[in-house]
Amino acid sequence: MKHKIVFFDVDGTITNYKDGTIAKSTKAAIRKLLDMGIQVVAATGRPLSMCDEIAKLGINTFITANGAYVKHNDIVIHKIVLNHEIVRAVMDYASTEKNALTFYSEKLQMNNIKHPMILKALNETLSLEEYPPENLAAYEEDTYLMCIFANEDMIHKYKIRFPQLTFKRWHPFILNVLEEDVSKSKAIIKVLEYFGLDKSEAVAFGDGENDMDMLEMVDVGIAMGNAGEKLKSIANFVTKESSEDGITIALKKYGFI
After folding, report:
1. At what angle are helices 152-161 and 84-97 packed, to 10 degrees?
2. Which pTM value belongs to this model?
């Protein structure tokens, strides 16, 4: 078989975008891929600590924090660590401006700013029903990604205050805070190098705009039916929604199962 590795976004792709569950057909399809010797990788905005349910499917390679931290079993393939002083400076300024920040190490933590819009965004992106634990000393730990919850008016102040940083929006109310760009596609390159594979041997599934570069990177990019129009427009194939066995349908179309 030409294709030897499949990258799956998690929320809205592996999981049902309506209720966060994983369909039996999806579990069976992923198990079939693994039994065939095809490498299966979860590529997610989640931190690693929120991937236990995905690991139970048999997946042991994870692109997390939108590409900032990549791990295969116990081996760290790739990581980008933010400067601790930068993290502290952004934390202090966010406290002054009353903006929420989340910090991605292998786990997810946040500052002490809470608001219903923040919890709504956390639910939409990570299916969280509660705020992550607070850590007002997160700058003392290795942080692979920070996310700030802000609209465009709010973020303008940060761009002036921190010209050395890049603020990359991936949700209407959430931006990555970056010293060095992170993306799922850059992480995919690291994974392919690790396994000695070429992008022509890769397939990817996604549903969000932060999956666009991932789908464009591989040989076959598949958009879920619940994806936005931008992602659908660049996909090789648009399958059914994640709530309608979209993964299984696409894998059958391309001869995997």
Report:
1. 140
2. 0.92
Strands 174-178 and 166-171: antiparallel
CB atoms within 10 A of CB 250: 24
Question: Which residues, in sequence order, are CB contacts of 86 under 8 Å at separation 6+?
Answer: 162, 164, 165, 179
Q: Which of 149, 190, 193, 185 is nearest to 167 (CA)?
A: 149
Report DSSP state, residue 11.
Answer: I
Output the six-digit token pair for 79: 């990581």
Cβ atoms 213, 199 nearer than 8 A: no
Q: Are strands 61-64 and 5-8 parallel, antiparallel or unpaired?
A: unpaired
Asked if 188 contacts 181 with a C-beta cutoff of 8 angstroms, the reply is: no
Q: Active-site residues: which are they?
A: 9
What tens digit of pLDDT does each residue of 107-126 get? 999 999 999 999 999 988 88
